[in-house]
Amino acid sequence: MLKSKKMKILIIGGNGTIGRRVKERLQTNHEIIVAGKNSGDLKFNLENSSSIRELFEKIGPLDAIIAVAGDAKWDRLENLTEDDYYTGIRSKLMGQVNLVRIGKDYLNHGGSITLTSGILADEPEIMTTSAAMINGAIHSFVKAVNLELETIRVNVVCSDVVEDSFEKYKNFFPGHRPVPMKKVTDAYVKCIEGTIRGEIIRIKA
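Above: the chain's sequence. Below: its structure in token form.
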């Protein structure tokens, strides 16, 4: 059985529900650095491109970047303001776009960036107009950006509601079955240790 080389991997949001499981899975074979807004080895602001650049300058060359972070406003259409939409645009969408736009210059040849979206891109529910829009935009970005990147790979993991947060969110996802965390972490491992590029990895139970 082939063993993957040891890589230096940055996980944005590595202490969150999905991020910490991804970190646990990868840290047995790789060097992991966790960054986030309020916790991690390094702190930074995902909504500020200067802060993102400063983060990469501190860390230096990387083999992979994983983003499992970003906020979006959940509410009924009639209640959502323009600023509510911009919450998700600045955070989850442009935050991840800027991680690619800036982070690509700090990746070693053959490196990868894995973004995170969610089931709402394909199966929106009530109160998810903003979140669904953001997730769909991330998918389009990943497919397009790979047409212009030759030495690195960009993919996105799109999961249904995960088992670790199912009790918290189950009322928002009627009829959905929680996805086992191992199935979710498998997707990130595939992106990091595999060779796929421009893929939207959709995960359901």
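The chain has one domain: 8-203.
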